[in-house]
Amino acid sequence: MLKRMLEIQKRKAELTAQIGTLSGADLDNAIAEVDALQEEEKELRSKMSDVEKRATFVKVDRGVEVKDEYTVESPEYRTAYLKDLQGKELTEVEKRAMTSAAGSAGAVIPTTTMNKVIEKLYGEGVLFPLVTNLNIPGNVTLPVEDTTADMAWVAEDTASSDSDDKVGKVELLAYKLIKTIEVSANVEAMSIDAFETFLVNTLSRKVKVALDAAIANGDGSSKAQGICNKIAGIQTAAADTLDYDDICDLLASVKAAYKQGAVFAMSTNTLYKRVAKVKDTTKMPIFKQEAKERFAGNVMGYPVVVCDYIPDDKIIFGNFSYYYMNIAKAFEIAKDNSVGFRKGSTVYRAMGLADGKVALQEAFNVLTVQAGG
Description:
It is built from 10 helices and 13 strands. The chain has helices at 2-19, 24-47, 50-59, 75-86, 92-100, 111-124, 192-217, 227-230, 244-252, 268-273; strands at 132-134, 140-147, 166-172, 175-183, 234-235, 263-266, 287-292, 295-299, 302-306, 314-318, 323-336, 346-358, 364-368.
């Protein structure tokens, strides 16, 4: 009996060391084997005499670290979290991981899964990858340089004069960002890795749409405030017409200090029905098609970003790093089977807390094509 106990402990130690490197079915099998070994160990202990238990404690338990504490980064928590969302039964190890992971209460998306969502946001987002992204819990007030004076040359033995530098601030709150997704019951049949891929793709797509739309045109009412709503901007010289001089006026309206890293951003309609038709003084189109990644090309040397959440006939020019977006609380996913009871489907709700605002208005301007009479 003691020999078998030693074998169990040795095998558990081997599996514990491997779990951090496994995924998919291999991880599920390893966790299931650990659970089975623990059940066998419990049964053996119940049959052992006190002397045998003390001998086992000395020879085995002191040499093996049993992991009972988990975090949202633990592979056990990831598996437990995804299986719970699918409605699958959890093993004892997975139950402990769900209940003991610090600060999760079983609701926080596992770190590895969330990292994949963020990676897709940066890879597939349009405006979100360009802005300054923060992850500060709760409401936050950030200092921003507002008015700055240049350094001045002074003669030897002459005191410098005080400048009129000013520091402004941008206040970011924590507004709810919610999206529900209804999924058929066959989601339970997916493997852990396939279900994670489904969640990552779906969540990143929904979040990307919400964040890009808010950055472009959010009204600031219980949501982020968009650039088009914050900045009054300028208008074209003539109604229903965009010409070379209008683009030059837009470029001139943003100081050179903010042009490093600046882009043009506009909708597909505005690009191809307005901007792509504009020609310079040599009768050459100002739009140069160089489509790659998320950029459509460039206008007068500045990249063009196409985002269809920007209203048609509006063109944003500026440095998007001066727009601040704060994810005050990481996204959580909850499920509800009752909503889709008749159809046998499950409704998943993704919710996070976020806000965004223009940090420095002079880093942007918006050109609007005047409506025709």
